TrEMBL record:
GO MF annotations in UniProt: 5-oxoprolinase (ATP-hydrolyzing) activity
Organism of origin: Mammaliicoccus sciuri
Signal sequence, renumbered to the chain: none
Family from the record: Belongs to the LamB/PxpA family.
UniProt cross-references to SUPFAM superfamilies, sorted A to Z: Glycoside hydrolase/deacetylase
EC number: 3.5.2.9
Keywords of the record: ATP-binding, Hydrolase, Nucleotide-binding
InterPro entries attached to this UniProt entry: Glyco_hydro/deAcase_b/a-brl, LamB/YcsF/PxpA-like
UniProt protein name: 5-oxoprolinase subunit A
Subunit structure: Forms a complex composed of PxpA, PxpB and PxpC.
Length: 252
């Protein structure tokens, strides 16, 4: 049976601002990427998200991003490799503290937003992110965009990685995600999203925004927790995966 992990970016509420539907999504997924307070989340939300993940036996991942609440961490920032290294270490430390009090550990790391996208394209940024993760804990799994510089950096640094694909995002011909600024970047139709992930998992291929088929490796599937249709996507993925003989199983 084909196996694949199902992850979701969660813990992105902040203070009085409620974002996403974590309580409904967490019981359905196998891995949660928890915001670490820079692009979203706060100390209370981090604590509650870790506690809820433990209750549902969901693997906890750190989701470090740029310190940009207004832009939700999705705006590119001119940073040095040293700054990237430090911001990743800082956020891993914050989340690990909450994991400790709930008698669990960080299982994986997945960068967020612009940090993720910049690392996917720039080997210098990728190396800074990956080196920070390895220095913090070389037993952590690293989650990065399939066929990207993040994956190549993990190979160079001998860090175990998992290739990530997206249910709710369109792809360029070079395997990068289509910029959110472009028409068609976000997939809002549930059937389209599910059909895309089934093709990626079963055929290791994806149709790009230009109508071309490219190879892709799918170890884990992401649904963005802040997406309008996140819960619908997750529920329908689970339903159709059962029909297709695809088992949802946590990353190891």
């Amino acid at each position: 049976m084909v196996q694949v992990d199902l992850n979701c970016d969660l813990g992105e509420s902040f203070g009085n601002y409620k974002l996403g539907n974590d309580e409904s999504i967490l019981p359905l997924i196998t891995s949660a990427n928890v915001a670490c307070g820079f692009h979203a989340g706060d100390q209370h939300v981090m604590n509650e998200t870790v506690k809820l993940a433990v209750q549902h036996d969901v693997h906890i991942g750190a989701h470090p991003g740029f310190q940009d609440l207004i832009g939700f961490g999705r705006r590119n920032i001119d940073v040095t490799p040293e700054e990237v290294y430090d911001l990743v270490i800082y956020q891993l430390g914050a989340l690990s503290g909450f994991c400790k009090i709930h008698q669990t550990k960080i299982h994986h790391v997945k960068p967020h937003g612009a940090l993720y996208q910049m690392g996917a394209k720039d080997p210098v940024i990728a190396d800074a992110i990956v080196k920070a993760v390895k220095d913090f804990d070389d037993q952590l799994l690293f989650v990065g965009l399939s066929n990207s510089e993040l994956i190549e950096s993990c190979k160079r640094h001998n860090l175990t990685y998992k290739s990530e694909v997206f249910a709710d995002r369109a792809y360029e011909d070079n395997g990068q995600l289509v910029s959110r600024k472009k028409e068609g970047a976000l997939i809002k139709d549930t059937n389209q999203a599910v059909a895309q992930v089934i093709k990626m998992v079963k055929e290791s291929k994806v149709m790009t925004i230009n109508g071309n088929e490219i190879p892709i490796e799918a170890d884990t599937i992401c649904v963005h927790g802040d997406g309008q249709h996140a819960l619908d996507f997750v529920q329908e993925i689970i339903r159709q995966f059962k029909a297709e003989g695809i088992e949802i199983s946590a990353m190891k």
